[in-house]
Amino acid sequence: MFAEDKLSSLVETAKSLGIEVRLVDTAGSGKDGGALVRLKGREIIFLDVSAPIADRVETVARALAGRNELEQRYLPPEVRQAIEQASSST
Quick check: 61 pLDDT over 90? Predict the structure, then answer.
């Protein structure tokens, strides 16, 4: 699976769980691929479009890691593996 496809699948999964995903450009800020924040009871993933795609994949995977809602949901093996790896590294 191409990294772009993996990122797209992760983003769609996040959205299906009610997590808002916003694209931002923080070029030169030195930040990783983005961050998950909770704002007024809502979860928002800010994805840095200037970050390498691998960092963005890791950001979304970390945001999804450990969520019980994903246990019974079909996810492509590469996507599930990214989430499981993020879960074990947190």
Answer: yes
